[in-house]
Each structure stands twice: as C-alpha cells, then as structure tokens.
Amino acid sequence: MFGRSRSWVGGGHGRSSRNIHSLDHLKYLYHVLTKNTTVTEQNRNLLVETIRSITEILIWGDQNDSSVFDFFLEKNMFVFFLNILRQKSGRYVCVQLLQTLNILFENISHETSLYYLLSNNYVNSIIVHKFDFSDEEIMAYYISFLKTLSLKLNNHTVHFFYNEHTNDFALYTEAIKFFNHPESMVRIAVRTITLNVYKVDNQAMLHYIRDKTAVPYFSNLVWFIGSHVIELDNCVQTDEEHRNRGKLSDLVAEHLDHLHYLNDILIINCEFLNDVLTDHLLNRLFLPLYVYSLENQDKGGERPKISLPVSLYLLSQVFLIIHHAPLVNSLAEVILNGDLSEVYAKTEQDVHRSCGKPSIRCFIKPTETLERSLEMNKHKGKRRVQKRPNYKNVGEEEDEEKGPTEDAQEDTEKTKGTEGGSKGIKTSGESEEIEMVIMERSKLPELAASTSMQEQNTTDEEKSAATGLESVQWSRPFLDMVYHALDSPDDDYHALFVLCLLYAMSHNKGMDPEKLERIQLPVPSAAEKTIYNHPLAERLIRIMNSAAQPDGKIRLTTLELSCLLLKQQVVTSTGCIIKDVHLACLEGAREESVHLVRHFYKGEEIFLDMFEDEYRSMTMKPMNVEYLMMDVSILLPPTGTPLTGIDFVKRLPCGDVEKTRRAIRVFFMLRSLSLQLRGEPETQLPLMREEDLIKTDDVLDLKCYGPRVESPPGINQAREGLGIAHTRPFSCAGSVEFTRSPVAPALLLHLNRARLPSQSTKETYVSNLHPGTALISFL
User: Fold this and answer.
1) Interhelix angle for 215-237 vs 271-281, to 10°?
2) Closest CA to 53 of 34, 36, 33, 39
3) 123: which strand partners?
4) What are the domain boundaries of the chain?
5) Which of 72, 104, 359, 499 is 20 to 30 A from 35 (CA-CA)?
6) Residues 650-698: pLDDT tens digits?
7) Helix or strand or coil: residue 572?
C-alpha cells in the first residue's frame, strides 16, 4: 500500500525520495495518514515516520514555502495527531509524537506559521490529553512541550491558550500541577512556564490567574517549600558527624532554587500577584516557620519549628536573594522590633473580627491538593471571587452562608475593578479579593490612640498593669536573641549565622534605610553617620578578641565578617566615628594577635613562606557572603579536621601548621582593620613587591649586601671559583628581635634593617633566601 501510494501521488519512487521537502511530498504523507487512521502494531512505525516527515516539511516550509502551511491548515492535518493520541497507541507512539511536536514548535520562527499550528484549538486538546505520566520519558517530553509553547507566548499568541469565555488556561493549569514533581528537572520546567506566563501583559489572563489559580497554587507551593525546610532541619539535626552532606547539599540547593523562583516572580512587578504571593510567604512560611523559630527553642507545642541555626541560615538566604520591598521590610520589622501582632493578637481579634478564631499566622497544610482546587474552580457554575480559606483557619463557613445577592455583588465589584486596569496597578475591587494580613503600620498607632483614651477611665492599679504589659509589648525578643548569639563564649556556630543575617539585611536593596538606622544597624549607602550601634560594636570586638586567643574557637570566616560589619558601622566618607574606648579595645585585640603570631614564628621553619602565601590568598579571595551562604558545611557544627573537605577558613585549625596559618590570618585582618579605622595607609605589606624583586638577567651588586652576609671561611672563594656566587644562600648575620612601636604593640623581625627578597619561583627571583632571614616589619 505504501509503495502504490507513493507512485500515485509523487509520480514514482525516485522522485519522491529526491524531493522530500516539498508540497507534493506533504500531499503524499497526507494520503498515508488518511489510509492509516487506526494505529496497529503493523503500521505504528509507518505513522511515526510519517509524522516526523511532516514536521520536517513544515519547518522547511516555514522558511521557504508558505503554501505548505496553507495545505496543512486546509486539510486539518493536526487532527490526525490528536486521533493517534486518543487511540491508546502505546508509549512508543506517544513519546515520538511529543518529541516531534516539541521539535516542530521549537523551530517555527514566523508568527503566521505559528498561528496556523495553534488554530482550531488542537494544541490545547493535546495539552489536556491524559498521558501516562508515570512513564518518565513521556513526562519529560510532555513538560518540554509545554515549556516550548510557553516560550512562544506573547500578547497575540496568548489568545490561543487562554479562553476568556470559558475561563480556561490549560497550558498554565496543567503545568502547575507538576510543581512538586519528584524530578527536579520537571519542577524547574514548571517554574519556567509560570514565569513565561506571568510576563505576558494580558490583563484578562492575569486576573484569571489571580482569581482562580493564585491562592491554591501559592498556598501549595508555600507548603511544599516549608516541607523541604523541615526535612533540611531534620537532616542537620541527625548529621553532626558530616556523613550526610550530599543530601543536605541537595536540600539547600532546592531551597535556593525556590527563593530565586519567588524573586523572579516578584521582580516581574505584577502588583496584584505580588500581593498574593507576599501574603502567603509572610503569613504561611517566613513568619510562622522561620522567624518564630528564633525564640523559645526549648518550648514544645504543636506549631512546627526548626532549629535556630537553620532558621538564621535560611533567613540570611531570603534577605540575600529577595529584594521586594514590602516583603523584606515586613519581615525585618518582625525580626528587629519583635512580633507585635502576636502580643496584640487577642486585641486585634476583638477589634477586627469579634470572634475567637486562632491566629492567622501558621504553617499548615492546604485542605485540598492543587489539582483538586483547580478542578473545583474549573467546574464552578459561575465566576466567584475566591476568598483565602487558608487565611481563615481553612474555614469556608462564611462563603457557604453567603447568599446569591452577596456573590452577585462581589462579581460586580470585581468586574469594576478589572475594567481599564493596567499591569502593575492595583484595581479598586482587589481590596476585597485580597485580604492582606501583612503587618500594617497603621495598626500600632491606632491601638496606641485607643489605649490613651481608655487611660482616662482606668485606676492606678490598672495603669500599673498596663505599664508592665507595655514593657513586654515593646521588647524585641528576636533582636535580643541576635545579640545573645553573638555573646556565646564556647564557639561561633550561631554567631556566624547572625552576622550573615545582619549583613544580608543591611545590603538588601529593598530595605528601608530608615528602618535600619532606627536600630543603628550598619547601612552601607548612608552618606553621613554620627552614631553607631554600641552594643553590636562591642560584641563584634569581643569576637575579634576571642579570635586572637591561642585557644579561640572563632573561625576565620566569622572574624572576617565581624571586621567587615564593624568597618561598615563606623567608617564614613568623612572619616571614622568610632569611640576611643572601642578603638582601644580593638588595639588590644590586635596586640593579642601579635603575641599569637610571635608564638608560632620560631616554631615553624616555613613561617615566612606561609606568611606570604596567607597574605596573597586573603587579598586575592575576599569574602563573598552570597557564596558563603550557599555552602552547606557551615550548617553543621564546626569541625577541626580537614578530612571533611571543608575549606580551611570555615572550620577550626588542625595541627601546628594550620594553627600557624590561622594566627597569621587573624593578625592580617586585625591589622588591616586597625589601619583603616585610624586612617593610615598600608606601607609594609606585602613583604615582597614586584618592583623590589630581582628579575632574571638583572645584575646583582654583591657589594651592597656584603656587610650583611656571612659564610664560613673559604666558602666564598670556592663558590666564586665555581661561578655560583650570585646564587649562594644567605645566612642570618643579625639577630631576631621583638620590639614595640610607640603607637601600638607590634612584631618586628629584622636583620640589621636590611630587606632581601625571599624564595619564590625560578623565573622571578634569583636569590634563594633561607627561612628566617628576611625582614618583616609591622607598624
């Protein structure tokens, strides 16, 4: 049959083979499809090859011959693809068909050709087809097909996917059902699809997403993220010996992916979607699970909590990645000023709700799956404003008690709010649809005003009780925890996370500088500063002093971050505003570091080489806090063994060599900080400067070094006779002394005030300096 058909359409076997990219060959393939409408075991390979050939011709026609698409549309050839799928033809045909369609849409470049393919709604029928998604290959090609279609979305093509009359958007709703798929590549593809959808500036489509899908999708997404966080916390709690870092790395990477995805949604700047997402993130994830875990770690209860280190670590990631101002400012308000909403919970409920419902902030699982919620919304007989059941303690009583009049009124208000709306601008009807429960700045002043009116009718005892309550209300439990973590004398496990959190908050572009300045947190962009946070500065200096002790448990990363935050607090464009007492304490810590380095100088033969290497490493690789917070090793308790593979600066030293390296690094950091705070330039480091080094082929006048070089009698003459006088090693002619400068304690290793180059690569230096004979002068 196949051979006779080729002769009948193409005029012979040879001609058809030679000209497969032509309209005639497409007609021949159409004839093949009409003769094989039913898929059997015998013709399935033929049908697969036919579909592949049709795809090739369509791609060729897109570039060369528009009549190809005319014929394709005229004969309604896409219906054959759909019929093949509906026949339960097996995974082989489904995989090949999805793969072919994916290739087809990827390679179509002209919009007219794309419109031909998307017409008649056949693509949407393929999207909603019930594939066997338990098959990994079918799942992979299906989600790739959806992602390819989403890349073609714009203000024109979106009308082929979103139907305003039926309120249906299959491309989007079918994709988000796989947001929690076990395979990470599928989840990534779903995120790409949703972002491509949100970027399309079509108001009807965006309002549909907000009204029908935003609440179920974001509530399930938040629960999915929180579940991963709890799993991450359990992994940290059970992996004190660093044996399960692979799984921990995967969980941290997944959390980072989630945060970047959330930030990508927020920066699209579709305001009503941002409001819904911000609401869910604050009240269903960040506040109840992350922030509330910062205090009362010893108290039990039904509310899920995570450990303090994990909470600080994740909050640091949030502030480093997400810069949406309403979200980060509300989150910082709770951390820095305490959770006023919990203190006033009962009062707020009496004023605003007059009912005894539980707090609206909690991390709870949605009552329905996302797929179930989407199906219910799809089959509703009329368009209704979807209230947020999760924000009413998952209660639908109010909606059920509503009469048709109230529903109709809501529909009218929503219609008024959506008419004439523009992207990024809140419409009038959204205030009722989106019940924002973010911390409202107006609640506290209103509450204070009502309290002052009541004071006129209260007794002295009641006023006294109110005063006690006020002191509790204005406490800052989370900020107190931050300071307490910096006071830990045992180790820097918690202190490192606190410093990272403070750094992330102060460098967040969405943060309100006034909010940080009110509590005197360091603000890098502040033009002029006259005051700084004394308690924080004292704790930072205390960390520096601990790091300079021989048995200090402060890691180099913690010390470097402490120096960075202190400098950020007290150094301004006009000078340094640090108090003399704090500067004196810092100089004391620097003196301790000098004594620490002095202890290791005589014990290590390669001290000078280590000294140069550590300085070079420290200056070439400054700290990057974002990279630091991607490292899972800091989530585990500090370890002192290099066998874990953890970077040296992120763990405690092991052995004399690493202790020497640490002492050198501590000295460098405190010396550099001291010089910057005193406004003095660095004139002594590095010891070896490029301009001072003797290069290859340079002439070395030994007379300049004669008075400072000693050799046993007779050795010089023997070396000169061998012609190697210029490369002989120098020996120490002077003594090694330790002195103190009049300005501050310092370490001085000198050799008759002579400065000679030390050992390095053969290409750069000629001199081969013996360890312990170079000048190191620190002022």
Assistant:
1) 40
2) 33
3) none
4) 1-154, 202-306+339-424+433-445, 477-686, 688-779
5) 104
6) 999 988 888 989 999 999 999 999 999 998 888 887 777 777 777 787 7
7) strand
